[in-house]
Specification:
Helices cover 96% and strands 0% of the residues. The chain is an all-alpha fold.
């Protein structure tokens, strides 16, 4: 009985954590995209200023 309950708990929490982790990863990827865009723009502006 305990094993069944523990297995259910672990499965429930692993799914919960996976969904949470997915949201966290989406946030991190979004922030990385924004950061890359900012770096690209800074580099582009500097390159255009040098020309």
């Amino acid at each position: 009985m305990c094993l069944v309950l523990c297995g259910f708990y672990i499965r429930h929490w692993s799914r919960h954590l996976y969904e949470k982790g997915f949201h966290v990863w989406m946030k991190i990827i979004y922030k990385l995209k924004v950061l890359l865009r900012e770096i690209h723009w800074m580099y582009f502006k500097r390159a255009s200023n040098e020309c």
